[in-house]
Amino acid sequence: MGFNIDKQTLQELNLLGKFKSGSVYGLFNKVETSGGEHLLSNMFQHPLEEVTAINERSAIFQSFEKTGTKFPFDVQQLGLMNDYLDPDAGKNKLLTLTDLFVKKILAMLTRDERYKKIIQGLQAVIVTLSKCHQFLSTIRGTDICTGVFGSRIKAIELLLSEPKLEALRLIDIYKTLPLTVLANYDHLLKNGLRKQMKEVLTFIYELDVYIAVSSVSKEKDFSYAKALPGEDNLLEVTGLYHPCINGAVGNPLSLHRKSNVLFLTGANMAGKSTLMKSIGINLYLAQMGFPVAAKEMRFSVREGLYSSINVSDNISEGYSHFYAEVIRVKQAAEAAASGQRLLLMFDELFKGTNVKDAYDGTLAVTQAFAEYEECLFIVSTHIIEVGEALQGTSNILFGYMPTIMDGNHPHYTYQLTEGITEDRQGMLIIQNEGILELLQ
After folding, report:
1. CA–CA separation, 239 vs 229, rounded Å?
2. Which end of the chain is more exposed for a tag (fewer CB within 10 A), N or C?
3. Which top-level group of life is the source organism from (predicted)?
4. Whole-model pTM?
5. Lowest-pLDDT range, 44-58, 176-190, 235-249?
6. What is the distance between the alpha carbons of residues 192 and 212, in angstroms, rounded to a whole number?
7. Are strands 235-240 and 251-255 parallel, antiparallel or unpaired?
8. Which residues pair with residue 328 across a beta bridge?
């Protein structure tokens, strides 16, 4: 079925995008190879769904981080190897020998580069196989081999021990090979061992991702979340922060079946939206088995993630800002009512309408959300009277982002605090900016 997340949520949380400024993908995209980049992108687009798979991938990243492994392969050689293995499959040995002979003659008589590229490609295969063998020797006995990734290591070791590949790996690339030997290996690699060679490249791309992501985790001092069954409906985290913000303030959070709604209040600029994005991003990373920006984290596996943080009007559909908000809440309600286990986040519900309707709508929707105990919700608002009306409603946890006044100037702690804010500094900020004086 797949993990459910829509385009708006992906954009609001800035999860994807190689060239998007501040994207979460960009934070982890430190891979060396195009194959590694493709694998990393695929991981980001397809979060895992099973507890075991999540915890196993997390364990692999941790083993690479603990070992501190560096990527040992030559990227240029990998490119030559990949280009060499791609074409010309299916020829028999005689045709391969004939083809190589013709290309060698053309290389001698003209500037034809095809024979040279074949030699370079075969050399790249030999170099790569040799480095792969050396790498496996260097990590023997480490957590990488003894942990979850051990079976993958053993499979590659078995593949490289194939007698013909072992003989090829030991060839001196600086010596000229007889044409018949060259043709024999060319045919073997592109036909009989073609699948095995692709498997070696896939293994190397996996190493690229594991090494790159674990190095980012070590550099940023991230941690690894523990995945739990979805039916537990739990999200417990300490020191959680936005992974793409340097020096971000860490916060605790504990949601569970009997306290599944965080009702969040606080002044504008106090950090409500950033906190919500931090929760959503880290839940998504945890669902991928990736490192998270937190001290500790335990979470029940979700079936989807849904946010409404930066809803805008839709001119092409004729939607006003308020109607776009209503449609977004309707979509979320349908998703929750479908029985899926989701994390749903709503920032400043119904801010596109008048205060009375926003109050009534926020109150009614939040009360309705609290009844869906298979989902977790975060609802923020600056209409603090809604929080007061929700007091005594079961399943709702109240938190706020404080504002500290230094004379007439507000300062923000960005520290989630239990309760409902009493901050009302909007008019004070307007006065501080001298707007009224400008208009007089």
Report:
1. 23
2. C
3. Bacteria
4. 0.89
5. 176-190
6. 32
7. antiparallel
8. none
pLDDT for residue 333 is more than 50: yes
pLDDT tens column, 204-237: 999 999 999 999 999 999 999 999 999 989 999 9
- Please tell me the predicted confidence (pLDDT) of residue 218: 96
Give mean pLDDT, residues 245-271.
90
- Across 82-91, 180-189, 308-317, the highest mean pLDDT is recorded for 180-189
Answer yes or no: are the C-beta atoms of 223 and 295 closer than 8 Å. Answer: yes
Side-chain half-sphere exposure of 77, counting CA atoms within 13 A:
16
Angstrom distance (rounded) from CA 417 to CA 184: 71
- Supply the DSSP symbol for 190: I
Query: Contact 352/327 with Cβ under 8 angstroms?
Result: no
Pairs from 331-339 (Cβ < 8 Å, separation ≥ 24): 331/306, 332/306, 332/308, 333/365, 333/368, 335/4, 335/304, 335/306, 336/369, 336/372, 336/375, 337/372, 339/374
> Which structure tokens are listed for 104?
């060698």
Q: What gap in Å lies between CA 302 and CA 232, rounded to an integer?
A: 10
Name residues whose C-beta falls within 8 Å of residue 68's C-beta, 6 or more positions apart in sequence: 218
249 neighbors 241 (Cβ within 8 angstroms): yes
Which pLDDT band holds residue 324 (cuts at 50, 70, 90)? confident
Please say if the pLDDT value at position 377 is more than 80.
Answer: yes
pLDDT for res 331: 84
Q: Is the pLDDT of residue 132 over 80?
A: yes
Distance CA 19, CA 23 (A): 8
What DSSP element (H or E) covers 299?
A: strand 296-300
User: 274 with 431: CB under 8 angstroms?
Assistant: no
Contact 115/123 with Cβ under 8 angstroms?
Answer: no
Q: Residue 134, SS3?
A: helix
β-bridge mates for residue 379, sequence order: 263, 346
